[in-house]
Amino acid sequence: MAAVRNALSAVLLALLCVAPVAQALGDAPGKTGMREVAAAELPVEARRTLELIRKGGPFPYDRDGATFGNFEKRLPVKGRGYYQEYTVRTPGASNRGARRIVAGKGGELYYTDDHYQSFRRIRDP
Question: Which of 10, 71, 121, 123 is most buried when burial is the number of CB atoms within 10 A of its CB?
Answer without folding.
Answer: 121
